[in-house]
Amino acid sequence: xxxxxxxxxxxxxxxxxxxxxxxxxxxxxxxxxxxxxxxxxxxxxxxxxxxxxxxxxxxxxxxxxxxxxxxxxxxxxxxxxxxxxxxxxxxxxxxxxxxxxxxxxxxxxxxxxxxxxxxxxxxxxxxxxxxxxxxxxxxxxxxxxxxxxxxxxxxxxxxxxxxxxxxxxxxxxxxxxxxxxxxxxxxxxxxxxxxxxxxxxxxxxxxxxxxxxxxxxxxxxxxxxxxxxxxxxxxxxxxxxxxxxxxxxxxxxxxxxxxxxxxxxxxxxxxxxxxxxxxxxxxxxxxxxxxxxxxxxxxxxxxxxxxxxxxxxxxxxxxxxxxxxxxxxxxxxxxxxxxxxxxxxxxxxxxxxxxxxxxxxxxxxxxxxxxxxxxxxxxxxxxxxxxxxxxxxx
Length: 394
Ligand SMILES: Cc1ncc(COP(=O)(O)O)c(C=O)c1O
Prior knowledge:
Largest sheet: 7 strands, mixed
CATH class of the largest domain: Alpha Beta
CATH superfamily of the largest domain: Type I PLP-dependent aspartate aminotransferase-like (Major domain)
Bound molecules: pyridoxal-5'-phosphate
Order of helices and strands: HEEEHHHEHEHHEHEEEHEEEHEEHEEEH
């Protein structure tokens, strides 16, 4: 199907919830994506931090094929071997104790919010409040949206779910002051992705983790975007020598097969009982077989490659900043990098796309780079050549 045919079909029959680009994605391989007119793009979007393993990684494709021939779905009323193996793998690489599976990042956060509520009710005299950060992003369902402290996402959908208290991201004193006997949890992203690629300042997550320990509060980290090698460690919290009580995951977990997960440490691993929470598709045979292969691919050298090539990308961007005063700031870690401009970033994204490079924005002024973790320095050089020529237009 050509780009034009796909655009026309979507416009006619699909609800208009996305500002879509005028191209149809029809094939992917590694860090390249092809459109409906046969054009190839260097993909520094990765389906928004999903194809960390590269598009259609052969090991993931093989696992999907093998499982599809055996059993695609069964209910969670049964034991699902691949689900057990995936849970074991995730607990082993995170240091947490138990997993719950769902289908998306928003759902993983819904599970975390419910778990924190029940933990507060049963373990902390009815505490129910969750402290969240300004400019956060946790998803579009009502609970996750209520935790997403950005009015541009929330305003049209009020009233929100009550029980969320917002503080400035990175301000430890503000967190401390907002705590009360009603506080059940603090929920943060280690690097705010949608909020503009804003890493937590040095020492912040460590101090919040200590405070949670001292005050008997659950620490929920949302690593839907930062997880699975994206920041140069398997999980971003591992840069900080801390461990959350609840970790939410999705995106790269299935390398494109929809799956989300909530991992829980010992403080809250026994809180949910049968009937408390569920999902028909959550952790089904196909999704968990795919995810098991996808996680193994990440473990097989991609985390280190991300750290190495990410450092190179940051260096090269710093050099570019000297040549282009339109670049105001460069932020991020591993291969989650934001380049803030002193003008809206949308035109640069469009110019890069015209020249064969796919990148994203994060907020109005920031370009966001989220390439597959298998990229090489040569790919970075190609991308930055296109970026530089697009910045000439600013
Ligand atoms: C940090 C974070 N949490 C949650 C979500 C929501 O995930 P999903 O779109 O899979 O519901 C996102 C999506 O971008 C995210 O970046």
